[in-house]
């Protein structure tokens, strides 16, 4: 926005380098958005690793799924890195711009005048209270947002937690690939975050975790998880547990449900979250930033509250195809990849693994969706039900039996029960027919440069 001639005041809660176990994988679709924003150099000089696809493991079998990058420049791929290093690079870049004021402070409340947000009240590091006024306030204060209630209807779910470890000086079975192990009870992830470190994220369903303090967590990881991971990583995994730096993070999911408010806009995890299994969060927010930047470019004066409100309502519609595809896929894959005692769900999980293993369009289609390279909701639904039909076909060949017919019917029913509630939460009309939503607003041609 500052490059478009606007003055920007950034109030950041903490300007020290963050240390998190999520936000470490940027899909190729997200990298392309960085390029559009002129920020691709933020993944340089931080020992970021190129990611070229995924490897999927199930019960001793594996399959490699590469991103369909043939049409793109050689620089285009996924990137994985230490989240804090990436954040600091972006902050450094913002601080070099003459019309950006970057300040450490904690926003305590939004200021409202005549039902319009006019700015914020915040506290600086030394405890002093300040106010800042602006025609547009962008609220992006993360998953723990204390400001979102004024701007949306937050329905936060916590289906599981990630337990994070860093494995040192070990080789992944497939170099430059993320690794997903379809374990019991739910998936385990491995991906490189530097030239010498591999991030491991163990998904634990529910919100109650074994205690780290009394050693229950280490015991759980050694007895329940370690036997399910690839042998090449076993020793490094055990060593990481013994080292003791075990971190946890609740996995939140929250569909975007804004109530448009003049003068303010929600973004990032404060606004919309999905299960982090597919690493889609940064791709969604970078796509949102590109949509917002392009939408507001023609508006020379943000003080025109009526025009600004119309444009901001359009943002919620224009972001939908990309955001809802990635959100729906994350929620659906998490459910499909998690173990279940239900025979129909077991068949669906096996069908998904076998379908992706077929190669060709059967793997490139879903991987293009997951990577943000082809964010088309209809394509997602078609592939999802193709997996279900493929699973039914496997059950009925060579000879269908009444029991197999019953399991097949339940498999289709189970697939519908997974994906349709997620689509409903995202908004059917916004996902598939965004142009029919009244708030959809096409910007007029730019009359003058800002």
Annotation keywords:
transmembrane, Squalene_epoxidase, alpha+beta, 7-stranded mixed beta sheet, 12 helices, 21% strand, 16 strands, 450 residues, transmembrane helix, disordered C terminus, 4-stranded mixed beta sheet
Please give the structural blueprint:
Blueprint: E1 8-12, E2 25-26, H1 28-36, E3 49-51, E4 53-58, E5 61-66, E6 78-80, H2 83-95, E7 100-113, E8 116-124, E9 129-133, E10 137-139, E11 157-168, E12 178-181, E13 188-192, E14 197-205, H3 216-225, H4 231-243, E15 247-253, E16 264-266, H5 281-296, H6 305-318, H7 320-337, H8 343-357, H9 361-370, H10 377-396, H11 402-426, H12 428-432
Parallel strand pairs: 1-7, 4-12, 10-16
Antiparallel strand pairs: 2-6, 3-6, 4-5, 7-8, 8-9, 11-14, 11-15, 12-13, 13-14
Helix pairs in contact: 1-5, 5-6, 7-11, 8-10, 8-11, 10-11
Pathway: Terpene metabolism; lanosterol biosynthesis; lanosterol from farnesyl diphosphate: step 2/3
GO molecular function, one term: squalene monooxygenase activity
Transmembrane segments: 355-373, 380-399, 405-423
Mean pLDDT, nearest integer?
Answer: 92
Strand-residue proportion: 15-25%
Number of strands: 16
Q: How far do the termini sit from each other?
A: 10 Å
Approximate helicity band: 25-40%
The SS-based structural class is: alpha+beta
Shape: globular
List the uncertain runs: 443-450
How many helices? The count is 12
Give the H and E element order.
EEHEEEEHEEEEEEEEHHEEHHHHHHHH
Biggest β-sheet description: 7 strands, mixed
Strands of the biggest beta sheet: in what spatial order? 5-4-12-13-14-11-15
| Rounded radius of gyration (Å) | 23 Å
Protein name: Squalene monooxygenase
Pfam family, one: SE
Membrane topology: Multi-pass membrane protein
Organism: Quercus rubra (Northern red oak)
